[in-house]
Every structure is written in structure tokens, then in C-alpha cells.
Amino acid sequence: VPQFIKGAQRFRSSRVCATLATILVNSAPANAHRRQAIRETWGHIAITRKLDIAVAFGIGEASDEILQRPVDWEAETFGDIFQSLVTEEYRTLPLKVLSLLEKVKYACDIPPFFIVKVDDDVFVNTYALKDLLKSLEAEAYEMKIWCLVWDGMPVMRNNHSKWSVSRERYPHDFYPKYCSGSAYVLNQRVLRGLLKQHSRENLIPFEDVYITGVLAEKVGVEHVQIGTRYAFESVSEEGIASGQTIFAHLGPEADERVEHFWNFLSWKRKENLSFDGL
């Protein structure tokens, strides 16, 4: 039973459902240009359909009608928007992402094996992602989450920091293992466990720590380290083109840089395909 109040349906199942995976891109109402850049590059429907992957954008509640109107148009035009009723602010991000993950769970008659959550400033090499997910199919029902794993991170108690958490909210000195929030891969069984556990926990206002750390630890999720498949500061064209980098964090200039990396990847793939005599 869904825990989060269902908003109006903003999506078409044919657009957001696939057998292998749905990529849930965490975005915000105002980031329309980023969403469009993704639709025209790594999330292009002609590419993702062939890979048996779907792309959906998850956004929170718009703060006013002026922001909401273009979202309505976008949802109507593309059918790839999940909109949460959780307001779009940093401290409520865990609730927003959980509500969007839940929407992915209920959107498809046959739920995808995997759900890949990424932020909208991340470039995804969808070809390399497909290869990874195909190699994990035998583990699609195991209690595992695949990501860049952080371990042994201390809890900050400084009240003036936005990263600060009180002892009442979280009594331990160190967080459990958790994933980089930029991108992580989970399956339906893990998602079910996380959603169930959420109703029993004190909310920590950090999506990565709360969802992939606190909740995951309580339901016995094993974290599988795939940190070598991520690129942060030093995103290289070669890393993306070789397939070594699956998730590249592009930061504030994401919408300009995403096109550059996609063009390079597409050119390299064409070059390799013609070289192989295909």
C-alpha cells in the first residue's frame, strides 16, 4: 500500500517503464533545461528503448503556479515526470526521493528489475550501465545496493552546520555505510524493505545517509562498492568512452557539459562500430 499520498498522474507507463531498469532522475521544477538536455543525450528515448531502460524525472511540489505551469506542459508533452507532493527543499529531500521511488514501484504493471536513482547533474553512460545491470541480473532479488560506498563517516554535531544532526535524532558517532547520493542502483526487494522501514525511523535530513545508510542497515542491505565506475572532479572523455565511467558528476554546468560528453561517446561508438566492420 503506498505510504505517500499519490499526486496526480503525470506520466505515461510506456515512457517510464522498462523490464531491465528505470532511471529516476532527481530534479527540481525550475531545472527544465537540464531535463531537456538529458532527453536529447543519454536519456534519448530511441537509445534507452533499445537498451531496455526507461528514464523518468522526479520533482517535488512547485512553490507557485508560475513554476508549476511549465511542469504541466512538460508532463503532458513527454509523459516522463513523476511529481511528489513533498515540497522542494533540502531538509525534505529524503521524503521527496522516497515518495518518488515509491511512484516508480507502482507506475509499471511489471516493475523494472532495477531502479537507478541519479541527480540531474550526473551524466549516465547508458550503454555501460546496461552492461553492468545485465551482469547483475542474477542478483536482482538479493538484498544489495550498488554504489560508491562511504564508510566510517562521522556524525557532525556543530549546530551551525547544515550537516549537523542532534543526538536525539541520531545517537551514534558514526553513520552506517551509505551511498553517494549522486547515483545508486537498487532492486525491487530492497526498495520494498526501505519503504517499510521508513515508517519506523527518525528522519535524518540527508537523502544519501537516511535512505541508503540508516534504512538500508536496518533491513540488512549489503552495500556493493562500484566506486571505480564514478567520476567526480576529473571527468574524462576517455573514461566515459571506454565504459569505465558509468556515472559522471558534472556539477553546475551539467546542461552544457552533458552534450559534449554525449557527442564524444556517440562519435567513439560509431568509430568503434565501423572499425569492427559492423
From TrEMBL:
Question: Gene Ontology cellular component?
Answer: Golgi membrane
Which coarse location class applies to the principal site listed for this UniProt protein? Golgi
User: Topology relative to the membrane, per the entry?
Assistant: Single-pass type II membrane protein
On whether Glycosyltransferase is a keyword of this UniProt record, the answer is yes
Mention one GO biological process in which this protein takes part, according to its record.
protein O-linked glycosylation
Record bears the keyword Glycosyltransferase: yes
MF GO annotations: hexosyltransferase activity
Q: Which domain of life is it from?
A: Eukaryota
For this UniProt record, the keywords arranged alphabetically read as follows:
Glycosyltransferase, Golgi apparatus, Membrane, Signal-anchor, Transferase, Transmembrane, Transmembrane helix
Q: What is its EC number?
A: 2.4.1.-
Q: Spell out the subcellular localization from the entry.
A: Golgi apparatus membrane
Tell me the Gene3D superfamilies matching this sequence.
3.90.550.50
Q: Which family does it belong to?
A: Belongs to the glycosyltransferase 31 family.
Annotated protein name in UniProt: Hexosyltransferase
* Origin species: Parasteatoda tepidariorum
